[in-house]
Design a protein that fits this description.
Number of strands: 4
Strand order of the largest sheet: 1-2-3-4
Distance between the termini: 61 Å
Strand content: 5-15%
Helix content: 40-55%
Radius of gyration: 19 Å
Order of helices and strands: HEEEEHHHHHHHHHHHH
Shape: globular
Number of helices: 13
Largest sheet: 4 strands, antiparallel
Length: 291
DNA sequence: AACCAGGTCTCGA
DNA sequence: TCGAGACCTGGT
């Protein structure tokens, strides 16, 4: 049983993580290279698999002072209403490499499709765990059979993922180091990667590198900002609006706003069948078609 | 059968 | 600096 406030459905089903699914009331995921099963009964979360408490605590950011954070973002009336409606929603601290790789695949794809792409990579390149699931593959594991990545249905994101994996493997990019510096430096560094723009950089910063002020603006968030606050324009404008409005924990506010605009996804990821696809995409980045 | 998806890229004003 | 358009592909 956990000794901190946590609502599993809200936290695991709100689109910040892609490998969790709920089956017969039990959430199943992979954390720290182990399959983990969790169940919530009468508000209490039970850990059904053997896993170090410290691992769970770190993953669910047990060290976050939820009362303080909720109080601070509740300075905004609308967010305050969401905080009382979605009590127990937490940000998750993901592994930086897994987070970066997952979100580089997330551009212009639905949550279900992202789940499929990620699960596809895991079953092909990830170490098989006891229990049947697979670990998220290391950069080395992916690059070892780099050509096979092209048949994972990633489309034009394929080349982006391989470039990221190469830089991480070669030590050219040290993701964990970006925890130490400030938010602007972190985002600036991430955006040098192909396939990582404003939004994906903010996701990586928020979901894996402890920059709680990061405020990813996707289409859903863009909708709320416009309809509720009349904020619109460029990405920078909306991000600055959020920073001023929601403060240093803007990232938490973002998660509540995201939830308010859509439903949770709890279904099991469906791995696309292994048809070979993605032929020229790896070498042809998106852009205007030259005829 | 279209249409859209937790965006990014490149180009032109 | 900003707005357009194009874009792999699988869900719905």
């Amino acid at each position: 049983m956990l000794n901190f406030t946590l609502d599993l459905d809200l936290t695991l089903g709100c689109g910040q993580v892609f490998r969790w699914y709920k089956e017969e009331g039990v959430w199943n995921g992979v954390v720290g290279g182990r399959e983990v099963r969790l169940r919530q009964v009468d508000g209490e979360v039970e850990v059904l698999t053997a896993v170090a408490g410290a691992t769970i605590d770190s993953y669910f950011r047990a060290d976050d002072d939820l009362d303080e954070i909720y109080a601070e973002i509740s300075a905004d009336p609308f967010v305050a209403s969401l905080v009382s409606k979605y009590h127990g929603l937490r940000l998750i601290r993901q592994d930086p490499w897994e987070c970066a790789a997952s979100y580089i695949l997330a551009s212009y794809a639905s949550v279900r499709r992202i789940q499929g792409m990620v699960e596809s990579l895991c079953t092909r390149f990830g170490r098989r765990l006891e229990g049947g699931r697979h670990a998220f593959p290391s950069p080395e594991a992916i690059l070892r059979k780099g050509e096979e990545v092209e048949s994972c249905g990633l489309g034009y994101r394929c080349g982006w993922l391989l470039e990221l994996a190469t830089k991480v493997r070669d030590g050219e990019l040290d993701l964990a180091r970006l925890r130490e510096g400030d938010y602007d430096e972190c985002v600036g560094e991430l955006k040098r990667l192909r396939g990582v723009g404003d939004k994906v950089a903010d996701c990586i910063a928020l979901f894996s590198l402890d920059h709680l002020q990061a405020f990813p603006v996707d289409v859903r968030i863009g909708r709320v900002l416009r309809s509720r606050y009349g904020a619109m324009g460029t990405y920078a404008k909306m991000r600055n609006f959020a920073a001023q409005r929601f403060g240093r924990y803007a990232g938490y506010a973002q998660q509540f706003l995201y939830l308010s605009e859509g439903e949770c996804v709890t279904g099991r990821p469906r791995v696309p069948s292994t048809r070979g696809r993605c032929t020229r995409a790896a070498s042809t980045p998106p852009g205007p078609r030259r005829s």
